[in-house]
């Protein structure tokens, strides 16, 4: 064995244990990440912020407002009425569905702080109950953990302080995060819900969700003074 081959042989044997050790440490670190920490580790996950229609990902000056949403309205209702447009960072709806038990708060705006508190709607989509595409998303390991359970025909009800709106699941969807086909404005009135596809290795480029048709509108017509915003 010449000198050059001998040195290479020694180098390989010396370096191999260190390479194996580094790989083992990396695997242990990945396994040890808690689900609750994934929100911070992957805080650059992109939802409807990819539309780039407004600076929703800015945290400067953010004022989060947790409103009490009317969920037990007993007065008369009408198919037409007035909308109450929320301020950025404001909770303005509660979502319930026949497909899962979780009651989900909905915030107007989308950034990391709001995603930790509930589902988020970017202001590039239309307000709940209005004509067009209402786009709402949430993290798959928190508020939309059961979104994949929805099937065609299931209902999604959104209660606001101006009315209650029921949507029926029309279509299950799957798309890449850079594909804006389903989250862009639409001529038809729809509700689009989506989240990341679960991936045990971390961030996924795949999004899953549902498209729902608006099937019932109940605008409140007898709000008490203490119920009005």
Topology:
Layout: H1 3-32, H2 35-41, E1 65-66, E2 77-78, E3 90-97, E4 100-108, H3 112-115, E5 119-121, E6 133-137, E7 155-159, E8 163-176, E9 190-196, E10 206-220
Parallel strand pairs: 1-3, 4-5, 6-9
Antiparallel strand pairs: 2-10, 3-4, 3-7, 7-8, 8-10, 9-10
Provide structural commentary.
The chain is of the alpha/beta class. The termini are far apart. It has helices at 3-32, 35-41, 112-115, and strands at 65-66, 77-78, 90-97, 100-108, 119-121, 133-137, 155-159, 163-176, 190-196, 206-220. β7 and β8 form a beta hairpin. It folds into two domains: 1-32; 35-220, Sortase, Chain: A. Helix content is 18%, strand content 31%. The longest helix is centred in the first third of the chain and has 30 residues, at 3-32. The protein is built from three helices and ten strands; from the N terminus they run ααββββαββββββ. 30% of the residues are buried. Strands 1, 2, 3, 4, 5, 6, 7, 8, 9 and 10 form a ten-stranded mixed sheet that branches. Mean pLDDT is 81; it is low at 33-58. The radius of gyration is 23 Å and the shape is elongated.
Return residue spans where pLDDT drops below 50 for at least 5 consecutive residues.
33-58
Q: Output mean pLDDT.
A: 81
From the N-terminal CA to the C-terminal CA, the straight-line distance is: 86 Å
Structural class: alpha/beta
Gross geometry: elongated
CATH names the topology of the largest domain as Sortase, Chain: A
CATH superfamily of the largest domain: Sortase
How many domains? The number is 2
Largest beta-sheet details:
10 strands, mixed
- What is the total tally of β strands? 10
Strand-residue proportion:
25-35%
Order of helices and strands: HHEEEEHEEEEEE
Gyration radius, rounded: 23 Å
Discrete helix count: 3
């Amino acid at each position: 064995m010449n000198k050059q081959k001998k040195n290479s042989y020694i180098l390989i044997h010396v370096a191999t244990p260190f390479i194996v050790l580094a790989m083992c440490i990396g695997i242990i670190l990945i396994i040890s990440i808690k689900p609750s920490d994934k929100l911070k580790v992957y805080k650059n996950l992109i939802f409807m912020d990819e539309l780039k229609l407004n600076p929703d990902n800015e945290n400067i000056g953010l004022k989060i407002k947790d409103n009490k949403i009317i969920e037990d309205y007993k007065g008369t209702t009408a198919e037409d009425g007035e909308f109450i447009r929320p301020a950025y960072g404001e909770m303005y709806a509660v979502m319930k569905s026949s497909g899962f038990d979780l009651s989900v708060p909905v915030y107007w705006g989308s950034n990391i702080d709001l995603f930790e508190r509930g589902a988020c709607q970017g202001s590039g989509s239309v307000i709940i109950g209005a004509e067009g595409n209402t786009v709402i998303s949430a993290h798959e390991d928190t508020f939309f953990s059961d979104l994949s359970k929805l099937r065609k025909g299931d209902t999604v009800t959104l209660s606001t302080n101006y009315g209650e709106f029921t949507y029926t699941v029309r279509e299950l969807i799957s798309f890449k995060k850079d594909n804006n086909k389903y989250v862009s404005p639409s001529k038809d009135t729809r509700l689009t819900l989506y989240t990341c596809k679960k991936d045990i290795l971390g961030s996924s480029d795949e999004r899953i969700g549902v498209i729902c048709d608006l099937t019932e509108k109940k605008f409140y017509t007898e709000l008490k003074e203490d119920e009005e915003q």
